[in-house]
Amino acid sequence: MANLKTFFKFTQNIWIYLLSLTLASISQEFEYDIESLIGDNLDLISEHTQTLRSGDQIYDSHFYAADFLRDFNNELRQWRHASAQVDWNYKTNLTDSNRNQKLKIDSDFENWWRRKLKEAKKFRQEALPETFSRQLAMITLTATSEKNDLNRRRDFILSRMEAIYGSTKACLTRNSCLPLEPSLVDIMTKSRDPEFLKETWLQWRNSIGPKVRPYFTQLIQILNEAAVENGFSDYSDFWKQDLFFNTSTLDATIITLWTEVKPFYQQLHAYVRRKLRERYGSGIIGIDGAIPAHLLGNMWAQHWPNILDIVSPYPELNQQPSIEARLRKSFNVHGMFRLANTFYTSLGLYPMSSTFWDKSMFTKPRDRNVVCHASAFDLYFPGDFRLVFNLRPFTLESSIHNLLSMALEKLAFLPFGLFLDIWRWDVMKGKITEENYNKKWWEMRLQYQGLRSPVPRSEQNFDPGAKYHIISNSPYISYFISYIQQFQMFQSLCQVSGYKGPLHKCDIYGSREAGRKLKHTLHYGSSIPWQDQLEHLTGSKQVKSDAILEYFRPLYDWLVLDNIVHKEKIGWNEAEINWIDE
Questions:
Q1: In the 3-class helix/strand/coil scheme, how is 61-76 assigned residue by residue?
Q2: pLDDT score, position 393
Q3: Listed disulfide bonds for this chain (predicted)?
Q4: Does residue 47 register a pLDDT over 70?
Q5: How confident is the model over 423-451, as pLDDT tens digits?
Q6: How far apart are CA 327 and CA 542, in angstroms?
Q7: Which DSSP string do the residues of 124-156 spell out, in sequence order?
């Protein structure tokens, strides 16, 4: 089961990677496509393209398109490597020098891209093979402005917000001023003092939000201006097309998925609410149905497994302290990652490279400010993948206790993963304005998560800015999709491995058949539509919730019965946000 949880973490990243993979990272696959279409006689290609380098006819030529794409991919890989390197340098050492270097490389990279973009737009895609036209369509899908000043301002704002996020500390009455990682996160994870949790929750938001709010407003204006310049209605229109290429049904798909899993979430929410009320009293957990957002073991209330000791129906099975102590004694941080690496190699997947082990930042350094949000970096150079990580506690799963632990991690996240980008898309569309940023944020948190602020909030605050993905302009809807999709993938791999039985008991450790299936799917990268890759792996082009519901079915049935026995109200229709107008 521990292997299964590791697999889910891994497949979540796989899915996000598949959907957002850049053209550079799959250029080798595209180059194979080019050679399969025109052969490998490069002298012939060069000779032919030289004869065509006049007039518009060259933009119908398979040979010239192949030549252009080959050069583009080779150059793009170099630019991506340079950009990723300076991004890594900056986020692992937040100095002005590193920021300026990052801004310089990003600006040069963007200028190169715009030059290539102009030529790519000249090709008549309908006259070219599908593999060529697909690449050209991906290249020309952009929301980058032709105005250098606008792009420089955008990059400055993003780097400034990330610097603020990485260096901000919250000052608490019983402690000195503390950084988010690991100090504030540890408090939210481990403390069971509701007043201390409230203060920690509040001071982080009050420390970060007002600082980044004006930058966020400027960023949205810049992004939208550039998107409109490129023919999009707003930046969210571009973002959806860029992230989920040729997926016109995205909005309908995510709402359908949420509608299907919402009844399960409501049962989990009701059960957790009762357990918190038993722990903290009805004076803190009211009767209107909403849960205060500071009591769920996470700074953002996006994952809840850290309160398993409070909500488990079988607390004697909560072995977290003893297991964690044994693991810390037996493994350092590197050891934990090597254990995970062993699982993947047991499937026949490639081991991580020596560069990964040598250059990743596994623990937070003491001598400098860094962005310590767990992140994976593709340096776009063979074998150069790196990780930023801070060791966090985890729990062991088995039976209802263990399914509950998994649900607190996976199912509890779904409404957060959904609403964050729905809120941001509405900001980009102008449906939410600077005048009601925070109010709409809390209205959506209540609508989707059934959570509210533990203290009154107003438009003087900017609580979205407390989340890294908001200030870094990182898409979030992929997490929502991935948390559902990974169960669909896992179900398919269990079938390939020959397993027969309850899905939640499947373990694919050591299954080379499952590994081959997964590896074959992954090797396509972005060279074919993600729907085709999904069909190859699962037999369906549709993202479906069937597998996640099947996996948790024993827990769902148990929750329904337990909530009936305790006469716990399902939902939070009577709840209101904790709000004051100023």
A1: CHHHHHHHHHHHHHHH
A2: 37
A3: 171-177, 494-506
A4: no
A5: 999 999 999 999 999 999 999 999 999 99
A6: 39
A7: -GGGS-HHHHHHHHHHH-----S-HHHHHHHHH
Question: Tokens at residue 343, please?
Answer: 């699982």
Q: With cut-offs at 50, 70 and 90, classify the pLDDT of residue 342.
A: confident
- Quote the CA–CA distance of 13 and 127 in Å, as a whole number: 36
Angle between the 553-565 and 250-280 helix axes, to the nearest 10 degrees? 50
Q: What is the DSSP string of 100-130?
A: HHHHHHHHHHHHHHHHHHHHHTTS-GGGS-H
Instruction: Supply φ then ψ for residue 361, to 5 degrees.
Output: -105, 100
User: Domain locations in the chain?
Assistant: 320-388
Which DSSP helix (H) or strand (E) runs through 515?
A: helix 512-522
Residue 459 tokens read as: 């438009």
Going by pLDDT thresholds of 50, 70 and 90, the confidence category of residue 156 is very high
Number of other CB atoms surrounding residue 574 within 10 Å: 11
Give the closest residue to 261 by CA, choosing from 485, 549, 559: 549
**pTM of the full predicted structure?**
0.80
Rounded to whole angstroms, the Cα distance separating 303 from 414 reads 9
Whole-angstrom distance, CA of residue 427 vs CA of residue 213: 13
* Closest residue by Cα to residue 416 from 310, 258, 545: 258
Spatial separation of the C-alpha atoms in residues 155 and 102, rounded to whole Å = 9
3-state secondary structure of 372: coil
pLDDT in the model for residue 385: 39
pLDDT class of 361 with cuts at 50, 70, 90? low
Cβ neighbours of residue 569 under 8 Å, at least 6 residues apart?
Answer: 270, 289
Share in percent of the chain as helix, strand, coil (round to 5): 65, 5, 30
